[in-house]
Amino acid sequence: MYTRIGPATGPKLTVHVDGRPVTVRAGDSVAAAAMLAGLLPTRLTPVSGAPRAPYCMMGVCFECLMTIDGVAARQACLESVREGMRIEVQSGRRTLAP
Q1: pLDDT tens digits for 23-51?
Q2: I need a labelling partner for 39 at 20 to 30 A (CA). Which of 6, 51, 66, 92 fits?
Q3: Both ends of the chain: CA-CA distance in Å?
Q4: Tens digits of per-residue pLDDT, 41-79?
Q5: How many domains does the chain have?
């Protein structure tokens, strides 16, 4: 469904998308990595549980919220991948630490 436009550049990194290792390129956004891994939806809404996926890819719409390295409600389109990063589908709202 999602393909890279042009040649992939930059060193290869391994991230874990919902527990599955995925090879991405340095400089990719977390949202792009999730889509390249075939992970859609990237979140489920808190009220109805409706599936959502990245839309604007520039930080305006907030549809790409994901849990990144254990921190929920991160905008995946604004985060760059790092080696060993853990990326997970976010289900519902973010919970706050006690």
Answers
A1: 998 889 999 988 888 888 989 988 898 99
A2: 6
A3: 40
A4: 989 988 898 999 999 999 999 999 999 999 989 999 999
A5: 1
Q: Determine the Cα–Cα distance for residues 88 and 20; give it in Å rounded to an integer.
A: 10
How distant is the alpha carbon of residue 69 from its chain centre? 11
Cα 98 to its chain centre, rounded Å, is 26
Domain hosting residue 18, numbered range: 12-91
The position carrying tokens 């040649």 is: 7
Which residue type is seen at 97? A
Give CA 42 to chain center in angstroms: 6
Domain membership of residue 2 (yes or no) is: no
What does each C-alpha distance from 25 to 12, 30, 74, 80 come to in angstroms?
A: 5, 11, 20, 10
**In one letter, which amino acid is 71?**
V
